[in-house]
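User: I'm curious whether this sequence folds into something compact or stays loose and floppy. Could you predict its structure so I can see for myself?
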Amino acid sequence: MWVVIFKSMVTTPNKRKRPRRKKKRGVVRSWLPKAAWALFFMALGAVFYALFFHGVWEKKWAQTQPRTESNKPEQTVKKRAFAKAPQTSQPELPPVLPYEIYPEKKPAIEVETVPVIPPAPDTLPRIAIIIDDLGYDRRIAEKFLDLPGPLTFSILPHLPHTRHVVKAARAKKWEVMVHLPMEPQEYPSANPGLGALLTSMTPDVLIDQLRKDLAAIPGAVGVNNHMGSRFTSQSVAMNQVFSELKRQNLFFIDSLTSGDSVAREAALLYQVPFGQRQIFLDHHPNRQFIEKQIKLLQKIAQRHSLAIGIGHPYQITWQVLSKAIPQLKENVLLIPASQAVGIIS
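Assistant: Here's the prediction. I'll summarize afterward.
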């Protein structure tokens, strides 16, 4: 009896064991989806936080920094990407766009061409001076407007100060031209800039771009090419350009950046008033060279009754012209570009 009581005290009654549920295959435990969603929302929140607060702090930082060339807006840098300062020891020269010279190694007298307008009897020799590459710097343009002209302003389309220079020149009743960007032989390493006409363009695209370039210079009476050593040597492309110039009643002056230019032939075909430069005044921007080129321009004018010279908006060019123009006017007649062109017969 005591043995039975002792065993009952030591041993515990058997509990019913719950039968184990069989695990269903392919069923994920209930905590895994919750954990996955939690991680997803945490990652999403981290991305949002990084984007939002990084943008805010970057904007605040940019506002506190000085405005330098490296942190200017991308659009401004793009506009100035093709600008290039002339390689010279004179620091006062403004940045201007690069341009082509043909032929660079030969004396300018060797590229002299007889003007298309026959000499008028009993008149002074005539000289037209065109200032190219305007529209980038409004201050240097205003300085040239103070010269005792008339000069002709050839203005590049789509530059920051294109419209201002056009209005200022027209207010002084000086002629304005479109300095039309065209593809050079070295393209794309040499970039003619915004609105350039390229030989790879289809006729529709080319004419559309040309019309936009012409519309950017309201009141323009004519066109001359900026760069364009490759483009002006292509007959098909130049014929397309001259068909539009004929339609808009504009003349064309060949800047003569290539010895293979077919501009004269296109002008003859479409009967567009045409002229061709004889002298670049300042492709070596120093005083002695520019003075020499002006004398050479006068010599050509005296020989053929007419000469066309092209200069650029350099400070040194303005300084030389401010002294040379009064002296020129004693011996020649300074004329606008429209009076230096004619129909080729």
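Summary: The longest strand covers residues 126-134. The mean pLDDT is 80.
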